[in-house]
């Protein structure tokens, strides 16, 4: 009798088995972190068939150098999108910061240029944060407006002509930020690696990073737990601004000129890279590994298009398609995020009868 009244063993082991399954990386999590990295590897393996000169060392250096400013801003944007917002003004910020940086270099050399770049980027980020937290303007509207404001200010500062670096400055420390190689690796890419290392530690190993993800996952629950919406918004938009300031240093020391039209459409490239890399537009989830791989993927695609002589109009079409694919992947991830949802969707498609219907 005592044996019959004992709790069945399967009932005890069921929670443990569910916990074990929860601890294992699901296919969705693996795709979010490593999916774009796998696609990047396949693309690199296929590039010699399309562009035989792509794998030359000098061309690889060029791709890494070109990817730096996009990647640095994408690292900051990962925090913004993971918090449930995004910054459409980064293209205008990059133009304005680049102009101010060259003005600073003309006035006080490398030290003033670096300080001007970081300070201007931070100021732009704080302007966005002030509009969003102080005036309660939605992030989409606020940053769309400041996109035009920042570019307009850059146009005003360059109404007498674009700001440029004199050619006699080719050997200056400032120019070496964009042109120097460290053990064969472009210095801008090294800076990008340092930024991603610091960003990963901030997102995954600090309370601030956990608060950002918590707020993006459920703002109401986060506020109930004492997480300040104002502090989160100020932090993430200031972080985006600082990332633009750092990125501008790697950009302007490579192109040597800046005005209000610099990098038109840059914000779309950044958002496409972040979303394609696995960060959800709904917030609460962000992967810097995926963003890093997506940045390299976009840079490789761009280099291949340019090397094959594809007109800029068609390059924009490809960028638009990449953005659509990124948003589609994000939608599919959201739709099939729940366990068993993909299996249930398939059962609906094949109209498999349920046991109740069969009975």
TrEMBL record:
Pfam families for this protein: BPD_transp_2
Ranges annotated as spanning the membrane: 34-55, 67-88, 94-127, 139-157, 177-203, 232-253, 288-307, 313-332
Region of interest (Disordered), ranges: 1-21
Main location per the UniProt record: membrane
Residue spans of biased composition, Low complexity class: 8-17
Any one cellular-component term (Gene Ontology): plasma membrane
Topology class, membrane: Multi-pass membrane protein
InterPro entries documented for this protein: ABC_transp_permease (IPR001851)
Subcellular location: Cell membrane
Alphabetical keyword list: Cell membrane, Membrane, Transmembrane, Transmembrane helix
GO molecular function, one term: transmembrane transporter activity
Protein name, per record: Sugar ABC transporter permease
